[in-house]
């Protein structure tokens, strides 16, 4: 039964690590100012228009 405990601990650690990665990405995403977001979106639209032509 010891290997079940190890497997459970590994699963819990995996879930915790995933949560940390998601939290970091969310913090990084929220760090943009509204003007930076608008600028990035306009750049994406401009690139997409260039590809479709």
Q: Structural class from helices and strands? A: mainly alpha
Order of helices and strands: HH
Query: What proportion strand?
Result: under 5%
Overall number of strands: 0
Structure description:
The model has no long low-confidence stretch (mean pLDDT 90). Helices cover 91% and strands 0% of the residues. It is built from 2 helices and no strands. The protein is mainly alpha-helical.
How are the SSEs placed, and which strands pair?
Blueprint: H1 2-30, H2 34-52
Q: What's this entry about, in short?
A:
Helices cover 91% and strands 0% of the residues. By secondary structure, it is an all-alpha fold.
Features:
single chain; 0% strand; mainly alpha; 2 helices; 53 residues
């Amino acid at each position: 039964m010891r290997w079940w405990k190890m497997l459970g601990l590994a699963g819990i650690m995996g879930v915790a690590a995933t949560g940390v990665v998601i939290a970091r990405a969310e913090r990084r995403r929220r760090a943009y100012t509204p003007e930076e977001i608008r600028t990035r979106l306009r750049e994406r639209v401009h690139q997409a228009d260039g590809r479709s032509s």
